User: Fold this.
Amino acid sequence: MVTFYIAGSVAVLATIMVITRYNMIHALLYLVISFLAIAIVFHVLGAPFMAALEVIVYAGAIVVLIIFVIMMLNLKQESVDQERQWMSRRLLIGPAILSVILLAELIYIISTTDTGAIEQPALDAKAVGLSLYGPYVIGVELSGILLMSGIVGAYHLGRQKKKVVHRFLEVQEP
Assistant:
């Protein structure tokens, strides 16, 4: 039960750090830590399949999707130079400490958990799929629409505006 509270605290702290960071990449690092902490919470509560889905779907696929959106924004060289100035060992202390806490919890869980003592039947992927696309299909579709609208919004915010000049105002070189 102690691991639940530690992982929950790390998840809350990392989520607060996601909200308060100005830099998108730094917020993304804390978001990964938050997803991993939530996966540990799922595992402690007896849902190892949901923990694996949390890591694969959220910490893997969604974070990669966010990185692609950042790449689509096509940041200029000035922002790359500013990012290099911001990157320091001091910046990595927060995510490193939270990651070490989660790693210690994971080692503790693996070393102390007896897998034979699980009394609930194991939930397979087919049952999860039937549940998600059965009574919870509205939630799945709404979250898909939310993600797609975020991608479209990021694209429209980051695209380069073309400078429109009337043909009579163009400077023609001889």
In short: The chain has a mean pLDDT of 77. The chain has seven helices and no strands. The radius of gyration is 22 Å. The first helix runs from residue 2 to 20.
